[in-house]
Structures are given as C-alpha cells and as structure tokens.
Write a structure and sequence with these properties.
By secondary structure, the chain is of the alpha+beta class. It has one domain. The protein is built from two helices and nine strands; from the N terminus they run ααβββββββββ. The strands form two sheets. Strands 1, 2, 6, 8 and 9 form a five-stranded mixed beta sheet that branches. Strands 5-4-3-7 form a four-stranded antiparallel beta sheet, with no helix packed on it. The radius of gyration is 29 Å and the shape is rod-shaped. The chain starts with a helix and ends with a strand. The relative contact order is 0.17. The model has no long low-confidence stretch (mean pLDDT 85).
Length: 175
C-alpha cells in the first residue's frame, strides 16, 4: 500500500456516523443518570437537614417535659414553667410539619389533636411521602384548650416552647 492509495482509502469513513450516534447516545445516558443521582443526593441532604431541625425541637421539648414544673394554663396568676426560644429553618423539601397529631387520611394537616397521639410529630415531603416519629413530650399549639396540633410550613422561624398543664395533662406548647 503506497501513500497515495492510503490517502484515497475511504472505507473507514462509512462507519463514522454510526460511531458518532452511539457515542452521543451513551454520553446522553451518562449525563442523565448523573443529573438524576445529583438531584436525589440534594433532596436527601435537605431531608437530613429537616430531620436535624426536628430533632432539635424534640430534644429541647423532651428535656423540658422530663424536668417538669409546668405552668397551669387555667390559672392566670401562675408564672412558673419553662420557656425556651429556638431558631428553626424548615427546608423547602417539606410541605408541612405537624407536632401533636397523627397524619390524616386526606393529606392535609389535622385541625384537632387526640390525647392518645399528641406525642407524635411528622412531616410530609413535597413528593407525598410522610415520615412519622414519636416523642416523650406531648405537643400542642397556642390555645387554652391545648387540643390543637402545631403546624409549621417551610421557612425560617423563631419559636417559643413553653411547658404548660391543664386538667388533661402536661404539654409543650409551641408558638
């Protein structure tokens, strides 16, 4: 094979377009899988951050609940009780977080608490998954009846937790 014949040989060029197509398809699949994995990683990190924030509330509430010394909510002259302020940031991966109630069957936050499930807190993610956990402390929202769960949505908050009691028991009131 002489140099002139080698320069005019074009049989290898026939397979070049097919090789390019296969390369582009494989590269697209690899990039797609990598972006999906990165997205799942970011969402897992946001959920871990959410769990960390909720663990912070649960830890402080449990300590308050165990130590006791609740303020009687029906006695306006009672100034005893424990109060704590916590800065909280709920990531945008959550639809809402509920303290003091079980998840409802219709997917929205419940409006009334149940005495048997007021030590439960849960969160609902944007994709519809629900994660439920229990606590030593019993939770409620700001109200004299202490029968409403505390609901919070994504954002940044400064919460006040207070240990209160009434005829139904002792609660960590969150507002």
């Amino acid at each position: 094979m002489t140099l002139i014949n080698f320069l005019h040989e074009d049989t290898a060029a026939e397979g070049l377009p097919m090789r390019l197509v296969v390369t582009v398809i494989l590269l697209s699949v690899i990039i797609g899988l990598t972006s999906k994995a990165a997205s799942l990683f970011v969402n897992d990190e946001k959920e871990k951050k959410l769990q960390g924030e909720l663990d912070l509330i649960n830890t402080h509430a449990s300590q308050m609940y165990i130590q006791g010394g609740a303020r009687n909510i029906n006695n306006p002259d009672d100034f005893s009780g424990s109060i704590e302020n916590i800065h909280l940031k709920i990531p945008d991966i959550a639809s809402f977080v509920v303290f003091g109630a079980m998840p409802s069957s219709y997917g929205a936050p419940p409006e009334a608490a149940n005495q048997h499930t007021d030590n439960v807190f849960y969160y609902v993610l944007n994709d519809g998954r629900t994660r439920t956990r229990s606590s030593i402390a019993r939770f409620c929202a700001n109200g004299t009846g202490l029968n409403e769960p505390f609901v919070i949505y994504p954002g940044e908050y400064d919460l006040t937790m207070e240990l209160v009691k009434n005829k139904n028991g002792t609660y960590v009131k969150i507002e």
